[in-house]
Amino acid sequence: MDSTPPSSSSSPFDLVSSALGRYIPRGQAAAPGPAGAPADPAGGPPEQDLPAAGPQEQILGAVNLDRELRVTHRNLEAPVFAGLDAPTGSPFVDLLPQGDVPTVTRRLRQVLETGEAHVARVQRLRRADGSELVVSMSILPAAAPQEGLTVSLIAMARRLHLYAAETAIGTSLDIGETAQSLAESLLAWGDVAAIDLDFAVWTGEGVTERAQDRIRLRRAALVPDRAWPEGYVTLGDDLPGEASRLLAQAIRRADTPQSIVVPDRATIERVLGSPRLVRALVPSDRSAGVACVPLVLEGDPPVVLGVAEVWRRADRPFADSELLDLEELVARTSHHVDLARQHQREHTQVLALQRRLLPRSGGGTIQTASVYQPTTPDSAGVGGDWVNSFPLPDGRTALVVGDVVGHGLGAAATMGQLSMEARALLSAGLAPDEVLEHLDETVTLLDDAETGLAAGYSALGSTCCIAVYDPVSHRVALSSAGHLPPILVSPDGRAGPLALHPHPGLGAEFALREPFGVHTFVAPPGSLLALYTDGLVEDPAVQIDEGIGRLADAVASVHPWDPLQQAARRVVSEVMPARQRDDVTLLLARMIGYRKEDTATWRLPARDDAAVRARALVSALLRQWRTRDGTRDSVLLLVSELVTNAVRHAGGPITVRLIRDGPGLLCEVGDTGNGRPRLGRAGLLDDGGRGLHVVHRLTTRWGVRWTETGKVVWAEVVR
Questions:
Q1: Is 639 left (phi over 0), alpha (psi -120 to 50) or beta?
Q2: Gyration radius of the chain over CA positions
Q3: Which of 82, 99, 396, 617 could crosslink 226 through cysteines, CB 3.0-4.6 Å?
Q4: Does residue 25 register a pLDDT over 50?
């Protein structure tokens, strides 16, 4: 041993080295290590407390590295580590096979940078005589970053190797990571290991029994990391169709998945039969033998998920016992691959729903951009947040952001239902506060542990914020259910959160419920509105108000000429907590509005001559806009019918508004009535009921929305 650590030390190297003494009894010399130093189990217990075991039973070793990854101390005195040459000052990577150097170096530097241990990597080490030792390698950070790393090594007996490999493989639900862990474990039996999965497994689709010549394989994992020969199938590539068919046929004999071993290079070339396939499947000229082990999903009949391939040099033929070990390891881990496949399918479904809800376009009167970043890349961290922006039929634009409790498929399903319901209700003309009332009831109804969208899932406490922008008046009506306040940046650069009345989340207890309020404010052209979820600003290291303030500063720094999508990504990167704990969602909306010359508004008293006055005002404006005669006649008739209905069935002052929007004209007539106009069947001799039929035939679409003082009937005509 190079050093005798003091018993009071608590560094990882000292703790591991101290533990070694329990397995080397005092007074019994251990075999000399590579440097010829005798074993010195300092820090061990008194001799009478030690187990009566010889040094040959020790399988634990330790190596301490500095920040340059050079050996500073070592404890490799057990006979099992004989031949590992690790003198003080030598690079640790000298112990590694050449092909493993990039991967292990990356792992070592990752632990140095993050301080997070990397545990139980199955690794080969080179002895001085060219033979190799398989170990379970853990990389531990030192107590102080400047002190480097400790690498603990456990020599792998067969059963321990299988156990450690299965444990490492089962730690991830990502298909790529699962396949990579399996390949790294298989590398203990060969020089190159590859995992080729059925394409349906890779994409998360359902796997069923299919004809063996129809399987399509994709390379999911390949170790070690190195430069491969041209034409060789590497990570992420599809195997040639003929190669997939040959592999499928080789591992299915008598319609039963079985392992095969091709022992030498000549046989491999004869089986493949094509130089192109040899280049695609054989990793190097030194590769002479391969073991192909199917990944099988047990069933009746069994289903092949893919193939594990282990390649060896000519001087290391496969023994029968080794093939049994390979089959046992692959059999133990095939179900992890299938679990990852199922998880991938759920992940794909959740992300498809998430993308479906992302804003497409804000129309010509508003620009929108959104960023959604899940907590983790797997579906366990996807599904809680959503954003949406869409033009309403009457020319306004709705902006919606929500945060559903939880993650995964249950949260995603609830998210989708709430988002679609909000869109439908807003398109039907309901105000933001009325929409939240309906969503509140929906969340309460969905809180059913047995028959809900996901058994045991509850969406109580979900939050939502809805804003509706009127591009004519430049006013925004906003309602919130437990959501953090949006950020408003005025055209002069002033920024801050809106002063909203706090409200509990959706589905709150009856005693906590209160009417949803509507906050109305002016957003002149050039204003920027930011809606977001709490994952963007909540950081345990700072107060929530400070996080919101940082977001306000970041949004205020967006220049009016900046592309909005790039600006949104920059804001998220500047504000997002260093350690992301929740989904991050941001929606930016830049207000543009209509030009003054494209709109006109008149207020008329509810008198019998209101229709005549409205026609005169509208006719003069349409001539100014140089509208076609046919369109002008249709608009005049439309306005006359709507104003007449307002005078007859409502009361109070009547508002007439005309908007020129691209290829269309939008006509609005507002009154103080609260009755909903309905398109009914009028009898042949009926005097009334024909006005809406005229409106229906003259327009491309029409509808009703409610205001604080009454309602507005709107209709669109093509110019």
A1: alpha
A2: 36
A3: 99
A4: no
Backbone phi, psi, residue 72, to 5°? -110, -35
Exposure letters 76-106 (e unless 16+ CB within 10 A, then b): bbbbbbbbbebeeeeebbebbbebbbebbbe
User: In angstroms, rounded to a whole number, what is the distance separating the alpha carbons of residues 593 and 611?
Assistant: 29
Q: Is the pTM of this model over 0.70?
A: no
Task: Give burial (CB, 10 Å; 0-12/13-18/19+) of 348.
Answer: middle
How far is 139 from 103, CA to CA, in rounded Å?
A: 13
State the CB neighbour count (10 A cutoff) for residue 242: 14
Largest Cα–Cα distance of the chain, in whole Å?
119
249 CB-side CA count, 13 A: 9
Helix, strand or coil, per DSSP, at residue 153? strand
Instruction: Report whether 292 contacts 311 (CB < 8 A).
Output: no
Torsion from C-alpha of 73, 77, 80, 82, nearest 10 degrees: 80
Q: Per the omega criterion (within 30 degrees of 0), is the bond before 257 cis?
A: no
pLDDT tens readout for residues 112-162: 888 888 887 778 788 887 777 778 888 988 877 677 888 888 876 555 566
Is 422 in contact with 457 (CB distance < 8 Å)? no
Q: Give the other-Cβ count within 10 Å of 34's Cβ.
A: 18
Q: Where are the alpha helices (DSSP H) in 210-319?
A: 241-251, 265-272, 275-281
Closest CA to 551 of 480, 466, 488: 488
Cis? peptide before 224, omega within 30° of 0: yes
The 3-state DSSP class for residue 564 equals: helix
